[in-house]
């Protein structure tokens, strides 16, 4: 559920929860002990106490200079330097009356500390026998009461009889005695209960001017809620976003929509006069003991909705495609049946090759008998293509059928393991004019050895793995709908097929050798995880970049915790023929705590893959990028942070961010300068002649942006903008 700040959270943290709830959990509050310097019996039922009075109960301790206790009425009157202590709360007061029998309290001139971090005060606090609680002229903040950076005041706060809802009147938020917000009346929820109310606002200054959003949360029922978020963008106009969420015994989901009424800026640039909107529906349900339904659908008024109206203040994420998916799944003990209809819509106006699966049906059966595992996977998929795609001479539909039976056996020994398997993949493509078939039979065997040694100081292991693959495959169909060569890593190296889908099949016989090494320092926390792997082809090899290879690249992966707080990780893909690094990524980090870290990352790839289904953008230049992140305190209250992402091939930075943050016990304020290059297909789309000229020159659709951002947070109330950890998160390896 959404996090409700301001009144909903602040006042519920005070006296009410800590003293009322625990204390009222029993019919009567029993006194465990009484102590004082002088105790006088006034009558058989009344005791008078003076000097360091301490009265202890199961939930509370009462401290004062003077006290009178009536045994029969269970009534206590306290005077002078009063303190009331519980597990999470400390209250100071001048006068107090407490009836332990019916659980009523009256306290005047109070101040309190909640969980040693929230401070408050009130002219009076009254707790009634019916569990109703009233606070008059109360305030609370996250700092000391002496000189708080902010204060939240209320003329009155009433906790209702149900103990879950509260009414607050005359609310006033002040920062250094400057009034910021006034609300005459608010009804809120206490604790984990939901109740209607305002959430934290969003305030941004970006390329479209001032952008303001004020969400309002509506609790319709314990399992239903609605959030309405009016929004105003200075250069575009007004709009509203809605989110409806539901939860039942067998289902959960949500419906979200966003609308901008007649976007002025978009209308001037494109002559589009209608509303701009986005709608999403996500749903999960269990239809029976073994039957499940998942639905995800979304739509937009135009391809540039997310690019123009991105709600991320930093602009670091941009949605590039839409997904519409209907999935039904039945799961039994040995059988799994799944049916799905899926559609992807690429929001890139220059993209082509989009298709739908209508439907995709799969059946997976697996069972085990006498130690032998039997698997049978079968699928039927109907692909429907858009008019720009042409896999089979302008065929608009292709039907794909697969049948994959297999048998496997595995055995584990004390210091080794062995597995063997056989199987077949049968593939068929049907169109209106032709059919293509392929059968691929395979045999695989794997043997793994475990060498381990352990002492009081370290644990070491060395695990060599040898895998043999024998394959017999017919010629490939001349189509690849959803199959692409995957990026090689240690795990993918041992896969039978290096392609993401069944259309393509790596048919070469091969031997794969891998070594896993682990060294753990049990006392100094040093550790090293190292993976080495390589495939050797027994026939003509495989083609990676148009040339047949007899061996795969050497794969090296490692994670290393160095001395102290230094960490490193990386991956190398080394081309054996050229003795050059084909691709790599590397990271080095020093992290003292969450507020003190320096991180260096790099990525390198020799060939640039096709970008967004546009091969004319592939200029075959290597990708070589570096990223430096830092967050470092320079004093108790000030910290600096920064991020730089640099393209080593173009010798320029494409993302530069830096700033500072001031923080104390009450608030955080930060300022950041950011200059970066962002994807800007919209600008290209509105000037297509210039766009295609740039495409022919191999220039990417990028826009230089330069903004200043402010981050502001009042602790326990809410914030505007991102946290530093979000600002300087790594993106180079995404």
Q: Name the structural class.
A: mainly beta
Instruction: List the uncertain runs.
Output: 1-26, 312-317, 608-620
In DSSP terms (H or I, runs of 4 or more residues), the helix count works out at 8
The proportion of residues forming helix, as a percent range, comes to: under 10%
Gyration radius, to the nearest Å? 34 Å
The number of strands is 44
| Mean pLDDT over all positions | 79
- Indicate the proportion of strand residues: over 45%
**Major β-sheet annotation:** 30 strands, antiparallel
Shape: globular
How far apart, in Å, are the first and last alpha carbons?
Answer: 29 Å
What's the oligomerization state? single chain
What does this protein structure show overall?
The chain is mostly beta strands and 734 residues long. Among the domains are: 7-194, Lipopolysaccharide (LPS) transport protein A like domain (lipopolysaccharide transport protein A fold, Sandwich); 199-389. The strands form 3 sheets. The protein has a 30-stranded antiparallel sheet that branches. Strands 1, 2, 3, 4, 5, 6, 7, 8, 9, 10, 11 and 12 form a 12-stranded antiparallel sheet that branches. The chain has a two-stranded antiparallel sheet with strand order 33-34. Strand 27 (416-430) and strand 28 (435-449) form a beta hairpin. The chain is globular and about 105 Å long.
């Amino acid at each position: 559920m959404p996090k409700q700040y301001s009144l909903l959270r602040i006042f519920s943290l005070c006296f009410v929860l800590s003293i009322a709830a625990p204390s009222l959990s029993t019919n009567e509050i029993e006194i465990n002990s009484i102590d004082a310097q002088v105790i006088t019996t006034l009558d058989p039922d009344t005791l008078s106490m003076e000097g360091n009075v301490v009265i202890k109960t199961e939930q509370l301790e009462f401290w004062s200079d003077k006290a009178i206790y009536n045994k029969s009425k269970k009534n206590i009157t306290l005077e002078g330097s009063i303190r009331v202590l519980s597990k999470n709360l400390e209250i100071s007061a001048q006068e107090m009356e407490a009836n332990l029998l019916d659980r009523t309290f009256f306290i005047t001139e109070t101040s309190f500390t909640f969980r040693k971090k929230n401070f408050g005060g009130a002219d009076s606090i009254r707790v009634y026998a019916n569990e109703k609680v009233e606070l008059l002229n109360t305030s609370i903040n996250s700092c000391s009461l002496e000189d708080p950076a902010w204060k939240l005041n209320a003329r009155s706060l009433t906790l209702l009889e149900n103990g879950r809802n509260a009414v607050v009147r005359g609310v006033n938020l002040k920062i250094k005695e400057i009034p910021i917000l006034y609300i005459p009346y608010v009804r809120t929820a206490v604790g984990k209960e939901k109740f209607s109310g305002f959430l934290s606002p969003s305030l941004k200054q970006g390329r479209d001017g001032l952008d303001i959003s004020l969400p309002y949360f509506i609790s319709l029922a314990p399992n239903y809620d609605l959030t309405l978020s009016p929004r105003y963008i200075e250069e575009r106009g007004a709009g509203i976003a809605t989110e409806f969420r539901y939860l039942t015994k067998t289902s959960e989901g949500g419906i979200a929509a966003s609308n901008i009424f007649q976007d002025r800026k978009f209308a001037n640039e494109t002559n589009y006069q209608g509303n701009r909107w986005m709608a999403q529906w996500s749903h999960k349900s269990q239809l029976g003991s073994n039957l499940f339904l998942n639905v995800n659908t979304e739509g937009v008024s135009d391809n540039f909705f997310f690019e123009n109206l991105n709600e991320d203040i930093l602009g670091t994420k941009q949605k590039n495609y839409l997904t519409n998916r209907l999935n039904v799944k039945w799961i039994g003990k040995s059988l799994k049946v799944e049916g799905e209809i899926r559609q992807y819509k690429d929001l890139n106006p220059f993209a082509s090759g989009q298709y739908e699966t209508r439907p995709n049906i799969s059946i997976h059966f697996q069972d085990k008998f006498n130690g032998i595992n039997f698997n049978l996977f079968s699928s039927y998929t109907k692909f429907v293509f858009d008019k720009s795609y042409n896999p089979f001479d302008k065929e608009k539909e292709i039907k794909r059928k697969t049948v994959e039976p297999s048998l496997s056996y595995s055995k584990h020994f004390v210091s080794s393991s062995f597995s063997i398997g056989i199987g077949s993949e049968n593939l068929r493509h049907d169109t209106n004019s032709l059919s293509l078939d392929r059968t691929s039979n395979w045999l695989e065997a794997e043997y793994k050895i475990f060498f381990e040694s352990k002492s009081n100081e370290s644990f070491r292991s060395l695990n060599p793995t040898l895998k043999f693959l024998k394959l017999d495959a017919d010629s490939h169909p001349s189509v690849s709908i959803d199959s692409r060569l995957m990026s090689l890593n240690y795990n993918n190296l041992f896969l039978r097929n290096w392609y993401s889908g069944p259309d393509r099949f790596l048919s070469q016989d091969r031997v794969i050798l891998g070594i896993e090494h682990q060294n753990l320092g049990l006392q100094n926390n040093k550790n090293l995880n190292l993976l080495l792997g390589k495939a050797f082809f027994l026939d003509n090899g495989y083609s990676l970049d148009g040339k047949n290879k007899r061996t795969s690249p050497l794969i090296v992966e490692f994670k290393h915790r160095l001395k102290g707080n230094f960490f490193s990780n990386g991956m190398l893909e080394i081309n054996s023929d050229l003795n050059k690094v084909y691709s790599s990524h590397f990271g080095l980090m020093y992290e003292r705590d969450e507020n003190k870290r320096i991180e260096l990352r790099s990525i390198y790839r020799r060939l640039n893959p096709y970008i967004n289904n546009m091969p004319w953008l592939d200029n075959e230049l290597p990708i070589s990028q570096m990223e430096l992140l830092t967050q470092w305190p320079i004093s108790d209250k000030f910290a600096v942070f920064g991020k730089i992402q640099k393209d080593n091939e173009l010798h320029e930075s494409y993302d530069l961010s830096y700033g500072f943050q001031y923080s104390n016990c009450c608030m955080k304020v930060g300022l950041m300068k950011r200059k970066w290059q962002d994807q800007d297909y919209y600008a290209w789309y509105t000037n297509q002649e210039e766009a295609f000229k740039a495409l022919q020159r191999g220039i990417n659709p990028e826009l230089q942006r330069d903004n200043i951002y402010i981050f502001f947070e009042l602790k326990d109330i809410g914030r505007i903008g991102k946290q530093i950890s979000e600002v300087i998160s790594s993106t180079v390896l995404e």
